[in-house]
Amino acid sequence: MSEHVGYVVKVKELRKHSNADRMLVATFFGNDTCVDLNTAVGDKGIYFPTDLQLSVEFCDQNNLVRKKDEEGNNIGGYMNPDKRNVTTIKLRGEKSDGLYLPISCLAYTGIDVESLEPGTPISVVNGHEICTKYIPRRNVRTSQTDHKGNRTRKKTAPIAPLFVEHADTEQLAYNLAAFKPGDLVEITLKMHGTSQRTGYLPVFQKYKRTLWDRLTGKEGTPIYDWGYVTGTRRTVLETFEGGFYGSNEFRSPHAKFFEGKLHKGEEVYYEVVGFQTSGAPIMGSAENKKTGDKEFVKQYGKTTTFSYGCEPGVSDFYVYRMTCVNEDGDLVEYSPAYMRYRCEQMGCKTVPVFWKGYIPEGIDAGTWIQDVAELYYDGPDPVGKTHIREGVVIRLVDKPKFCAYKHKNFYFKALEGIVKAEAETPDIEEAEELNGEE
Q1: Which CATH superfamily hosts domain 144-434?
Q2: What does the angle CA 112 – CA 113 – CA 116 come to, to the nearest 5 degrees?
Q3: What would the pLDDT profile of 39-60 be if each residue is shown by its tens digit?
Q4: What are the C-alpha distances in Å from 377 to residues 186, 199, 392?
Q5: pTM, rounded to two decimals
Q6: 255 with 239: CB under 8 angstroms?
Q7: Integer distance in angstroms from the first to the last C-alpha of the chain?
Q8: Is-contact 326 162, C-beta < 8 A?
Q9: What is the C-alpha separation between 130 and 109, in angstroms, rounded?
């Protein structure tokens, strides 16, 4: 199940809001969500997770965005008309993660709303867009010159055909059915940085052109040889100049670290954390008071900066995955244990491990592993110590393909929403998605 859709849900339980007479609190996918007094147990509705953007049409049909009459009074809803994004916030002291609306909110699409079963994903209904992933769209590019360093070469022959992007990691709460009794699971820290990958792989060198190629204007036959190639989550980096944030120079030493260390065919995936060379944090900072929680400010200070113990201008990296591919494209996924063994050989760090074990027999495996994950997904980051952790990654071990899910905590999601609300640009990875580099 995807995290970038809404879901048909049934209200299973409700409780009174602790500090508001006109609100109740329901729970969907483990997330507490404030709902209005018209909500009742047994009702069907749509749950929109945090980080979704609702469509203009959907908001208009349900009067969700703010609008004023001639006298300046608000006659609409509460959402920003330009952003229309779903957030994680505290409402009068209660956590509210996501948005719940009654099933009737889809009636304008012409669908029989009562026919929708709980669990049905909602993004487009009868040709009407309902929601999509929210990505801030202000000042995305600094300039064409800055941006070009991120792009791959526009050649017919791929630069490194065996250089594989990392698999997307979806939310645990929407994928509990993936877990079965007897599965071996490992829970590791999820780090808030930018993805990077480096491989020792066949890399494009030049074209071999025959006389016939020259006469007919063809490029010729691409020639490959073993070499090192580095990229972000979505792109291949030819150089470390340019980029959405002015420079990718902070990535360079981490890529060079692996030169002479990787075996042929190995690709390593890692999270780069800390600061850019300019001194700016890789990921955005946030004012903690905007979480609306005095205890949070008392524990973590006035500002959250995801430093991971790095000084300004310095970054670090932590490996979370390794693979090996032969020249025929046959890929082998390294187990977490073997990945750590190879990283120990190379002298680099891996993401911290919190728990590893088998799911017991005779239980609801998904709910059980979610409960275990929630023992570790919140609290101070064990690396940075001065800021909250993002959450955890729950990996199914001994699968032929990489299979893992993320579980973020409430306060991180709240901070992430604050950063997005104020950012002049999206973060590095979302900037790539916004510009079609998927």
Answers
A1: DNA ligase/mRNA capping enzyme (3.30.470.30)
A2: 105
A3: 999 999 999 999 999 999 999 9
A4: 13, 30, 5
A5: 0.88
A6: no
A7: 19
A8: no
A9: 10
